Amino acid sequence: MYITPEINRPNSAAESIKYRLFWVKHTGLENPSSFTMDRELNFYVVEKFKHRLVKIDKDGQKTVLAGTGQQGYNGDGKGASVHLNLPTDVTRDSQGNLYFTDTGNHLIRKITPDGMVQTIGGKYVIDDKPQKEGDVPSFLPIGDTTGDGKPALEAQVNIPNQITVDPNGVIYFTSKSNTIRMIKNGIMDKFAGSGTTGYNKDDFDAKLAHFNEPTDLAVGPDNLIYFIDSKNFRIRRVDPNGFIRDIAGLGLIKEHVDVLDNPLIAQIAPTAITLDPISGDLYLYDNSHRFLYRLDNKNRK
Question: Pick from 164, 273, 150, 27: which is nearest to 300 by CA?
Answer without folding.
Answer: 273
